[in-house]
Write the structure tokens for this entry.
Amino acid sequence: MKLGQRLLVFYFLILGLVGWFVLDLVFGQAKPLVRQSAEETLVDAANLLAEIVASDARDGQIVITPALRDALNRYAGRTPDADIWGLKKTRIHTHVYITGPSGTVLFDSRGQDEGKDFSRWNDVHLTLQGRYGARTTRSDPQDPSTSIMYVAAPIRDQGSLIGVISLGKPGRAIEPFVQRAERYLMLYGGLALLVCLLSGVLLAWWLSRRVNRLRRYAEAVANDERPSPPRFRGHDEIRDLADAVTAMRRRLEARAQLEDNVTLLTHEMKSPLAAIRGAGEILADEVKEPALQRFTDNVIHESQRLSDLLDRLLAMARLEKLESLPARKTSVSVSALVQEWRRSRYALLAEKQLEISVNEGSLQAEAETFKLALFNLLDNAQRFANENTTITVHVEAACLTVTNTGPMIPDYALGRVTERFYSLPAPGQEKSSGLGLAMVNEIASLHGGSLKLENAHQGVQARLTLPE
């Protein structure tokens, strides 16, 4: 699934969940809110009628006069023909009844319950106790749509409670307003979700378009093309990423060009150097004069030194081009490699009368690069070791240490000895190329390990740590 599609699905999922919770909450509150509004209206009407009834009271008793009865009956039979926000009201749904101080019904607008005891109903019972009285009762207990909401108000004469008047509103009269509110909520909620969805589609398209432009640019760079950097309006993370990719591309191009030039230069110089060295060796066989022999020896020595430097530069360039080593590593015997190095450096070791001490052990590493790293560590140890001493190679777990006895590294150089072309002079020898430890450090990084040099007792210890 593409990024834009994932963003759209994730966005719509969150939007849908939030919309569902909000609509569910609003739908759950729609009916109670309409009922609360109707109840508030009934409270006002009940108290108004209570004052009208109280005006006819005599000697602390409720009197249902013929005029009052006739007026309430006419009220129940009216046809309002009202248009309430698009809903037609053609009849009066309010039920009115009046009870005395004992709860006996004195008047019923439906003419059904006069003379009955309503003192057990909450609206009457609570009002007679001086509290707010209200109840909801179903005419059919099994049918929720038959519920009727009653609100009562006290009838007082000179401060004394002489009866209760109750007004009832059937749920069927309120239901059309609830349904209309729910329809509006569904309509506007659906429109809001649709607008949000369209906004999400537009946002996903916009982000996907910008990301795709950046992706095509990166792919073109990876294919060695030279595309123009993408330009984005505004300043955001995608533009910052595009600038970072462009900067990385330029640095990589500059580095690749330098590596190619170094590789080309070293290859071009090897043949002339081999010719110079060959000529020097021929001259050394022919020249007998001591001064000229020193000259030809110097030509041979320097040409060999330059050839070694070129070999190291080529090896360093190959290492730097590697992004990573092969995932499959092998068990490399350190002692076998040390013996191989000893045979190849026999003359140098004999000249300084150096001994090699190595324990049996192996490391998990890429064989070719590890061999290069170990040989460079041993070459460095041999170069700085004092005469008649021992170079110690120790393997333990995933750590290799090479220790020699000789001059220590000055404090100012401890952090720089692994830098490229940085070297310290060895006693009685020329300054080296400064590439050996840099190559070891690069190999350690390729393996995911580390190289650390530190001064040990009367010498230097190089610690190469590889991941297990």
Q: What stands out?
A: The longest strand covers residues 147-157. The mean pLDDT is 82.
